[in-house]
Specification:
By secondary structure, this protein is mostly helical. 59% of the residues lie in helices and 7% in strands. The protein has a 3-stranded antiparallel beta sheet. A hairpin with a 7-residue loop joins strand 2 and strand 3. The chain is elongated. 12% of the residues are buried.
Amino acid sequence: MRTPEGSDRRTAEDDPADAIAAAWSRERPETPVGSIGVVTRIWQLAKHFGDDRRRVLAEAGVDPATLDLLSVLRRSGPPYTMSTRDLAVHSLVTAGAISQRVARAERDNLVTRRPAPGRSRAVLVELTAAGHELVERTVDRVLAREAQLLERLGPERREALAELLRELLDDVQDELKVRGISHVGHEGLDQPEHG
């Protein structure tokens, strides 16, 4: 099928999500299939976006965990310094994972760490000039690519989709009684996600 913009689109007959829903409806007419068109496509999109982001980062020579660490520090504003505890909360990973990320970034001269004044065991992590330059260059590359992947929707449809996804996320989190995304092996977080 051709859209008004002239791009090829799958028809309902050859769309995997529609085919799955149709097969369940045929085999088990009592099975509720209304979620398949949404949930299956969200999973497929997450996989495509994740794979593409990993490819872009590999071309830039940056691993996703390091970019996440540097991005959290960069978004914190000057002086681009946070405690390891705050980094873990904002990155939605465990303290052990943050410790590994910081050690790797410090080896690459992307961050420095030092004891927090007046706090016995707290450690502060600060973005270096090299880390700042790397995150600036890489974030622009990643976000430009993701904008390119979404550009066919146009600004109004992107905004509408973002609002629908926000509502859906809020509703699902309310239904599941969780906030944010839990760490692997942990219960759901009580605080909102820090994006």
